Amino acid sequence: MSPHGPPAGPHGRPEDTFARQRPRLLGIAYGMLGSITQAEGVVRHVRLRWQATDHALVADPQAYLTRATTRLSIRLAQSVRSRRESYIGPWLPEPLGTGDAAGTGAVHSESVEFGVLLMLERLDLAERAALVLRDGLASPYPEIAAVLGVDETRARHLVHSARQHLATDRGADPERREDTAGRPREDDDAEDYEAA
């Protein structure tokens, strides 16, 4: 081992490989979680896993890091959803800032608009992951299938189903839409808000 870290493998130095993938990973995590703070936490955790990995055994670093980020984001989203069930009031995604904390240009170019994040929240987590990977990052279906641990047909179905759910939500009557907890929305009267 050199004094400057682990030796470079066939994909270059592990630190450089991670640095190149970081914006993409942050985009995946943010698209899944709707919170830059949580997304950065996921990416930090994936970096620690990457540092502890035997890089000689990793044939495709991008696929490895994408899979780790997506799966960790799904687990965190499941945990967050269960905590939100007891929360009173609407959940709103955390908008991206403009500073360095928001990541690099890739997150801004690949990030999902605020309103779409609200709609993504309604999707099943596998659908959300498939849609973020396909539409947000232009991942091919075989890669999506590998990341989610499903066959390619199932990956295509998840993306199709997610798109249908989003199209249905966009076409719904705004007066009849449900809030993120699945309850019909009430008029935005101050009395209703204070009563809640």
Description:
The chain has about 200 residues and is an all-alpha fold. It has one domain. Helix content is about 60%, strand content about 0%. The chain has helices at about 15-35, 35-50, 60-85, 105-110, 115-120, 125-135, 140-150, 150-170, 190-195. The longest helix is centred in the middle third of the chain and has 24 residues, at about 60-85.
In brief:
By secondary structure, the chain is mostly helical. The protein contains nine helices and no strands.
Main attributes of the structure:
single chain; mainly alpha; 9 helices; disordered N terminus; disordered C terminus
Question: Strand content of the residues, in percent?
Answer: under 5%
- State the helical fraction: 55-70%
What is the N-to-C succession of helices and strands? HHHHHHHHH
- Note the gap between the termini: 61 Å
Low-confidence stretches: 1-7, 98-112, 173-196
Overall pLDDT confidence: 74
Give me the number of helical elements: 9
Shape: globular
Rg is 19 Å
Task: Let me know the number of strands.
Answer: 0
Q: Mind describing the biggest β-sheet?
A: none
Query: How many discrete structural domains?
Result: 1
Estimated structural class? mainly alpha
The quaternary state of the protein chains shown equals single chain
Protein name: RNA polymerase subunit sigma-70
Biased composition (Basic and acidic residues): 166-186
Domain RNA polymerase sigma factor 70 region 4 type: 116-166
Region (Disordered): 163-196
